[in-house]
Design a protein that fits this description.
7 strands
Length: 257
């Protein structure tokens, strides 16, 4: 792209993703995807405004372009045009779609499998190559702890309010407070199973756009291994208490095998 004039086809990305649309259409029945029986939400950022947006099957019809936009991470992939606007991967603004899920239907308990391709934890850089690589990790890692801390804080406040309202005689409750008691008594809890990719020492600052066959096979194999290790343990099947609200399981890292 460096050798192309501004605005030319291919001038804004290292890869051409045009064939991805055909692949998606060959693998996905978009009528089934949008039939209302299941829900899909994908995040993207408007290149022109910088605003984050979620394309959600409850609000719009999801097409291949929406999926492509949610994974159009620059500089590897080009932006995707949707209804006259251009979008990049939402990860450049926030790589944590967990918050969007936690903001939905608070009375529903959820089992969440969160897969992070970049690890927030890492060693102290010892040179510029390490700095560039570590910068990518921190920039694209998910803010899971921040999201769950906010959820726990709000949940704890609900439980304190519930306890206070239960001590008020029923005849003194104001309008809507009885419904609040019923709602908070059945507040949803969340189990989060966290799978975090552990980068190899030889992976450099191009890790966000290096998609060679060797790298991809290595990533897939590690993902399969981490998933198998996680599913050996059944802790993630146990719901948190209503007092706790949320539990995070990072089981594949705890498995010594």
């Amino acid at each position: 792209p460096w050798s192309l004039v501004g605005g030319a086809y291919g001038a804004t990305s290292f890869y051409d993703t045009a064939e991805l649309k055909d692949t998606l259409e060959s693998l996905i029945d978009f009528d089934v995807l949008n039939d209302g029986k299941k829900r899909l939400s994908v995040g993207a950022v408007n290149v022109r405004t910088g605003n984050f947006v979620y394309f959600d099957t409850e609000k719009v019809r999801i097409e291949p372009e929406h999926i492509m936009a949610s994974g159009a991470l620059p500089p590897a992939f080009p932006s995707i045009r949707i209804e006259g606007e251009y979008y990049w991967d939402g990860g450049i603004v926030s790589n944590t779609p967990l918050q969007y899920l936690l903001d939905q239907e608070e009375d529903r308990s959820s089992l969440v499998f969160q897969v992070d391709l970049f690890s927030a934890r890492g060693v102290l850089p010892r040179g510029m190559a390490d700095v560039l690589s570590r910068h990518k990790d921190i920039m694209y890692s998910s803010r899971t702890r921040q999201n769950t801390d906010n959820f726990e804080r709000i949940h704890a406040l609900k439980m304190k309010l519930l306890d206070a309202l239960k001590r008020v005689p029923s005849e003194q409750l104001r309008e809507g407070e009885q419904e609040l008691i019923a709602d908070y008594s059945n507040a949803g809890v969340v189990n989060i199973v966290h799978l975090i990719y552990q980068h190899k020492g030889y992976e450099g600052h191009a890790k966000d756009y290096e998609f060679s066959g060797t790298s991809m096979r290595e990533h897939w194999e590690m993902g399969l291994e981490d998933t198998e290790r996680t599913l050996r343990h059944k802790k993630w099947l146990m719901l948190p208490t209503n007092a706790d609200g949320v539990t995070i399981h990072d089981l594949h890292r705890e498995d010594p095998t």
